[in-house]
Write a structure and sequence with these properties.
Elements (H helix, E strand, L loop, with lengths): L13 H7 L2 H4 L3 H17 L5 H19 L12 H13 L12 H38 L3 E6 L2 E7 H26 L1 E2 L15 H8 L3 E2 L3 H6 L2 H27 L7 E2 L18 H24 L13 H25 L1 E2 L1 H8 L6 H10 L4 H18 L8 H7 L7 H4 L2 H6 L9 H20 L6
Parallel strand pairs: 3-4
Antiparallel strand pairs: 1-2, 5-6
């Protein structure tokens, strides 16, 4: 049953039917579509646009269709162009011509975008919960094993000693920004488009606020053209998804390095690893590699949708049918990757001894030496030069900073005293970095406490201002 066939004398050719149809992917919106239709029918009845009896028959029929679809008993027809067509056809089979009154005062244009808004709000709530779960997994590991000392890197070169907990917590706060972006995005999704009609509103005395309240929207769209044409919320969701995936990819890359034999900082559980068909010894970190790879996929979804939107005149154009597959793919991929990474984190085995050994070389406390001289009154730039010369000599003589004697240190500056030998110890370097947000154990405890509060907010109350 076509919703638009009145002025046509011939049917579209088969390839056009297939090309035009969206049921294969928008059928997942059936719950949202039926919810929107029930709210619309209720409003039509309460405003007297249709009779109360007709409204009751429509809502009853829609409830039965929802039950059928939930149980997989609804039979889709080859003629169903999209989920809206399928629901209206099914309603007609149940209640007859009265089903046609459901279309009063609305268009597929405002129906489709309203369905999508409901779907995205639900996905945002799910994503916020999944992000909170990954944050919790990271925070738990930081609390239980976070005291292990490891090298921190810049330019992939050992730079300064940090702790495992400090490193893991950096991703917790990164993920919290991701959750905040999604929750903020939700405020711009939370707008009822239904009532915009095809583009110009409607002549019927509809009550949009009543429909908004029934569906849980906070407000209604202010302009009917924008109400139909707006897909900013889709772009914003996908942009947030791409940023979150980028963060997951960065962490995945580090896990791939850490679990290599060359680093040996961690071992990935066999539950999240695979082997090789030809090399019996292999244990590959495929979970992390796939997360890293799927980041490009989600970024591609965003680029595709940006390109779809860039040249569209107002209001509705069939191009907008392309919003769903990219959105669904980005959302599905993100949610799966968040679940995978939480599982990976909870099952990792860390090698504290290997990390500690890696942190105890490569002049990793050289900055502490320069700080030591700066405290003694030497300008840091001059202290930097002195320590650089010490390192240069150590490289030439194949010595570490801990191999240099106090007398040798004094050759570079008379300000060096016996306590310098304690300053260059890796553990002391970590303990002394007590600036807010620093790597010292006291600061790690503060970060964990702060994170617990963020996790509770993100995980239990995914709403604006949480």
């Amino acid at each position: 049953m076509k919703l638009w066939g009145g002025r046509f004398e011939t049917e579209p050719v088969e390839i056009m039917e297939e090309f035009n149809a969206s049921l294969s992917f928008d059928r997942r919106l059936y719950r949202e579509d039926i919810a929107v239709s029930r709210a619309h029918a209720m409003m039509l009845g309460k405003t007297g646009i249709i009779s109360a009896e007709d409204a009751k028959a429509i809502t009853k029929g829609l409830k039965e269709i929802l039950t059928d679809m939930d149980k997989g008993k609804f039979t889709f027809s080859p003629s169903d162009e999209d989920i809206h067509t399928a629901v209206e056809r099914g309603l007609g089979e149940k209640i007859g011509e009265t089903a046609g009154k459901l279309r009063t005062g609305r268009s597929r244009n405002d129906q489709a975008v309203t369905d999508l808004r409901l779907y995205v709000m639900s996905d945002i709530d799910q994503v916020a919960m999944l992000i909170a779960d990954l944050m919790a997994a990271l925070t738990d590991r930081a609390e239980s094993e976070g005291g292990a000392i490891m090298p921190g890197y810049t330019h992939m070169q050992k730079a300064q000693p940090i702790t495992l907990g400090h490193h893991l917590m950096s991703y917790v706060f990164m993920l919290d920004r991701d959750a905040a972006r999604f929750i903020d995005c939700r405020t711009r999704v939370d707008i009822l488009s239904l009532g915009s009609g095809a583009l110009a509103g409607t002549t019927f005395p509809i009550d949009r606020d009543l429909v908004a309240k029934e569906l849980g929207f906070s407000k209604v769209s202010a302009n009917s053209l924008d109400g139909v044409a707006d897909r900013d919320f889709v772009l914003e969701f996908m942009a947030d998804a791409a940023i979150t995936m980028t963060h997951l990819s960065r962490f995945a890359e580090e896990l791939i390095l850490w679990t290599s034999r060359e680093f040996g900082f961690a071992r990935m559980s066999e539950s999240f690893s695979t082997g090789s068909s030809i090399m019996p010894q292999k244990k590959n970190p495929d979970a992390a590699e796939l997360v890293r790879g799927k980041t490009g996929r989600v970024t591609g979804d965003l680029m595709a949708m940006l390109t779809v939107m860039k040249g569209l005149p107002l209001a509705y154009n069939k191009d907008l049918q392309e919003d769903k597959e990219a959105l669904f793919d980005a959302a599905d991929t993100l949610k799966k990757c968040l679940r995978i990474m939480a599982g990976v984190v909870r099952t990792l085995t860390f090698d504290a001894a290997r990390m500690s050994k890696a942190a105890d070389d490569d002049f990793i406390t050289a900055t502490d030496l320069a700080d030591y001289l700066a405290v003694k009154g030497i300008p840091f730039s001059a202290a930097h030069t002195i320590v650089g010369n010490i390192v240069k000599i150590c490289v030439r003589k194949n010595k570490r900073l801990t191999d240099v004697t106090l007398e040798e240190y004094k050759d570079f500056s008379p300000l060096f005293e016996r306590d310098v030998l304690d300053v260059i110890r890796v553990k002391r370097s970590v303990e002394r970095r007590e600036s807010a947000g620093g790597v010292a154990p006291k600061q790690l405890k503060s970060q964990i406490t702060a994170a617990r509060g963020l996790i509770a907010a993100r995980g239990n109350d995914p709403s604006p201002g949480a």
